[in-house]
Amino acid sequence: MAPKPLPNVLEIKPYVPGLAAESGYKLSSNENPLGCSSLAVEAIKTGLSQLEIYPDGGSNLLREAISERYGIDADRVICGAGSDEIFQMLARAFLAPGDEIIQSEYGFLVYKLVAQQSGAKTISVPEKDLVADIDAMLAAVTDKTRIVFLANPNNPTGTYLPFDEVRRLHAGLPEDVLLVLDAAYAEYVQKNDYSSGLEMAANYDNVLMTRTFSKIHGLASLRLGWAFGPAAVIDALNRVRGPFNVNALAQLAGIAALKDEAFAQKSADFNNAELDRLLPAVRETGLTVYPSVGNFFLVRFPQSDGKTAEAANAFLQSRGLIVRNVMAYGLPDCLRISVGLEDANTKVIEALQDFMAA
């Protein structure tokens, strides 16, 4: 008889990334269209002559660089192969069969995946106008709740919660429930009432903030993320973290990227200028376009024949525009479109104009 995996593993639907573009424009994975910092590229080149050497197992120099950049304690920082690995560490360290996690209805798919890996149940709380509903999330807390995940800004909706609402969520949670603030898109937000959660993670024993180098820093291919939080939580994560979990080239590139604040600002400025151009232009076609503070936006299509999200996706692909189908999120009538370079964004506008006019 063949070996059998655990029953909860067979229930997992593997994460499906955005489609790649063999030609045309890939606007399906929220990547930085400007690439990455030239300093990061040069740092990687310096590391190519030492590929036979194991990386720094504790990412010590990278954690020091994060500490210096954000004014936080390096001992309370942990690095991972993307934010995804940190979520997996959280599941290994804090979740057991029968436990529960809470997320908003359209939260990042990986939260549910890591919960399933540990045999825990995911409670998805309905949103209001594609924004997390704090009262509903608090009402969903039970004695089985171990982690509350909040992506802020949220992918795939592009919406965010003001900091006062995040604090209200935290204030209503039991002290033994961990609040994880996923701030992957924080650097793009230019709202006075927004905070990544860094201060909360510094001051509370049950708040962890996660960040990534994949978006604003353009290092998605290297898989690099980090988290900051209470010493006891970081200690637990280090106990389940694999040895040498962050490769040496990623560490070098991350350190260099943090130094290039001009590139990060240029990326944010470009993104927000293009969003200001894209959103009203797509709305003029008659489509519903939701406000976004990330490097992507969500478009809702009619359910009438020939104008559905599925039809639009096929039409965009015929124009060489690869966007993200979000059926897996429970949004079958929507498409998520990443902000690309100016030419790609113009082609998106023109394609959607033609699609709706046909």
Multimerization state: single chain
Number of helices: 13
Number of distinct beta strands? 13
Kindly state the mean pLDDT as a whole number?
96
Strand order of the largest sheet: 2-8-7-6-5-3-4
The major beta sheet can be summarized as: 7 strands, mixed
Number of domains: 2
The CATH architecture category of the largest domain equals 3-Layer(aba) Sandwich
CATH class of the largest domain: Alpha Beta
The termini sit apart by 57 Å
Indicate the structural class: alpha/beta
What is the chain-wise order of helices and strands?
A: HEHHEHEHEHEHEHEEHHHEEHEEEH
Please specify the SSE layout and strand pairing.
Elements: H1 7-10, E1 25-26, H2 38-47, H3 60-70, E2 77-80, H4 82-94, E3 100-104, H5 109-117, E4 121-125, H6 134-139, E5 145-151, H7 163-171, E6 178-182, H8 198-203, E7 207-212, E8 225-228, H9 231-240, H10 248-259, H11 261-283, E9 288-289, E10 296-300, H12 309-318, E11 321-322, E12 324-325, E13 334-338, H13 342-357
Helix pairs in contact: 2-10, 3-10, 4-5, 4-9, 11-13
Which key phrases capture this entry?
single chain, about 350 residues, alpha/beta, Aspartate Aminotransferase, domain 1, Aspartate Aminotransferase, domain 2, 13 helices, about 40% helix, globular
